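Anyone up for a design puzzle?
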């Protein structure tokens, strides 16, 4: 047994810490969720969890990669499954390790009674309610003189001002709280597509001599999946030393072989019926890195006109309309740092595919594509008063492209890595697959449902979706 040094929690060494899957991940599996089933394709499978390092405890707190990247949750975690694990384990699942599975490591006391899930004083409230993991980043960023100061903080977790873990501690740290990104469909994250780099743009090369995507992690801070895995082992799993490069490569090979996508919908039924190409097999066969704009998705084009005998036609036509809205409904994109400033117009007629361009997957195909579309602060961010908020003030002569030189954000995003005012609030547009299996949404879990996501966009870009269009878009997103 391994004991968590911080709060005395106990997890079995070698445990997968997952209560929701079997000891073997077969080559192909389906898993139920609120609106259908997720298809999980393990192209190199079947995988015996006990003998694959992705599922093994490689550190000191009993956690494995699968603790936060569950096949059933589209290689992420959902708030629902987090709550289930809290109840089933009495809060002892290694997921809840105080280091980053609590609002702050010092919020957890080994003598405190177990808290109810809905209790706002539950030290794991952000993980339970929003499936958020604490990411502690050094302040100032390593090797960088930042262009801004942290001039104020709203600190409901009491971690930013903690004498041991906060901004003024011996190891000054800013804690941001983020959703675990999908550790699957990763060719879409790491492939920089032909034409995706701006003309003349030279991308840094990784250790294998391949161009870096610059899009691994919300703030793009990891150059390769290998460095990402190593940092996860030292960080999330609190290891004392790294395993061999061969073990890290085994982890990367495993996650590179996993494809996840919804393959059955409660109302549209089979997502591969009558010409539709949903589900993980078509995704695994698709070429990553294509910007075939305007059609990021064409999985449900075949459902636009269905044969007379199809009993699911009403729902399927709605899915097809939702896909068409995603691909072609135009609206004006303005005040997005990382887009409008770079292209030199602050009034750009665009569709959802502008930022969700990677064909079949919907993430951003462009390298170093972190942007600030306003999910983390400003007039349109969805409310989340349980999250910390920072007031950042740029030094003389420095400013953000659209938000002035004093900015209030829940997550400084890429600016915590680069120290640049222009990068404040920038995060990547993540994959859109497996959404039904991994609510809530956005980097900080501020959108509890897909309706919340659509509400955000409707206001942010003044789209004026009708009720029918919103329903169609949601019916489509939940089939991805
Ligand atoms: C305690 C939870 C936790 C554990 C354990 C964990 N991760 Fe993660 N993972 C996260 C979070 C949170 C993020 C996003 C962090 C960010 O963007 O700052 C992430 C991001 C990633 C990404 C980036 C995906 C993308 O689209 O950029 C990969 C890949 C990944 N993790 C793989 C792993 C591997 C491999 C392991 C085991 C060695 C692991 N993770 C262990 C929580 C976890
Ligand atoms: C200006 C660029 C841009 C446009 C246009 C855009 N998105 Fe996004 N989208 C993003 C970014 C960036 C994120 C990540 C935001 C975050 O995590 O806070 C995101 C996140 C999302 C997510 C949540 C993904 C997750 O894993 O949490 C969904 C769903 C989504 N967008 C759907 C849409 C739809 C539907 C449209 C069109 C109505 C759209 N987006 C238009 C940039 C954009």
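Challenge accepted. My sequence:
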């Amino acid at each position: 047994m391994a004991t968590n040094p911080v709060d005395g929690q106990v997890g079995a060494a070698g445990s997968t810490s997952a209560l929701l899957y079997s000891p073997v991940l077969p080559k192909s599996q389906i898993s139920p969720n609120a609106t259908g089933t997720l298809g999980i394709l393990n192209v190199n499978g079947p995988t015996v969890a006990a003998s694959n390092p992705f599922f093994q405890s490689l550190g000191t707190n009993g956690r494995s990669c699968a603790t936060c990247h569950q096949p059933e949750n589209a290689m992420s975690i959902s708030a629902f499954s987090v709550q289930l694990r809290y109840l089933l384990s009495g809060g002892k699942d290694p997921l809840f390790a105080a280091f980053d599975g609590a609002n702050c490591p010092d919020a957890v006391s080994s003598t405190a009674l177990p808290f109810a899930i809905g209790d706002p004083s539950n030290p794991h409230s952000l993980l339970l309610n929003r499936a958020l993991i604490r990411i502690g980043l050094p302040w100032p960023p390593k090797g960088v003189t930042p262009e801004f100061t942290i001039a104020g903080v709203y600190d409901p977790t009491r971690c930013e001002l903690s004498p041991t873990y906060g901004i003024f501690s011996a190891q000054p740290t800013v804690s941001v709280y983020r959703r675990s990104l999908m550790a699957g469909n990763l060719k879409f994250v790491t492939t920089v597509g032909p034409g995706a780099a701006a003309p003349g743009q030279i991308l840094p090369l990784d250790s294998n001599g391949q161009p870096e995507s610059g899009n691994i992690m919300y703030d793009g801070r990891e150059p390769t999946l290998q460095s990402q895995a190593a940092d996860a082992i030292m960080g999330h799993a609190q290891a004392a030393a790294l395993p061999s490069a061969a073990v890290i490569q085994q982890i990367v090979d495993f996650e590179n072989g996993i494809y996840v996508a919804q393959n059955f919908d409660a109302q549209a039924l089979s997502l591969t019926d009558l010409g539709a190409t949903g589900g993980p097999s078509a995704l695994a066969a698709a070429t990553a890195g294509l910007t075939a704009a305007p059609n990021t998705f064409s999985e449900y084009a075949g459902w636009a006109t269905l044969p007379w005998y199809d009993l699911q036609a009403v729902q399927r036509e709605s899915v097809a309309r939702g896909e068409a809205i995603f691909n072609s409904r135009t609206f004006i994109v303005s005040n997005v740092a990382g887009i409008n400033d770079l292209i030199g117009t602050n009034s750009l007629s665009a569709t959802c595919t502008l930022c969700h361009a990677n064909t079949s997957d919907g993430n951003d195909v462009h390298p170093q594509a972190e942007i600030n579309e306003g999910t983390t602060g400003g007039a349109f961010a969805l409310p989340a008063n349980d999250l910390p908020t920072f007031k950042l003030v740029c030094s003389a002569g420095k400013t953000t492209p659209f938000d002035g030189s004093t900015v209030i954000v829940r997550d400084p995003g890429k600016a915590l890595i680069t120290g640049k005012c222009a990068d404040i609030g920038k995060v990547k547009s993540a994959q859109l697959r497996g959404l039904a299996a991994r609510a809530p949404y956005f980097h900080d879990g501020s959108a509890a449902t897909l309706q919340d996501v659509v509400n955000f966009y409707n206001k942010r870009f003044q789209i004026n979706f009708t009720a029918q269009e919103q329903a169609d878009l949601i019916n489509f997103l939940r089939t991805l």
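A detail worth pointing out: The two ends are 39 Å apart (CA to CA).
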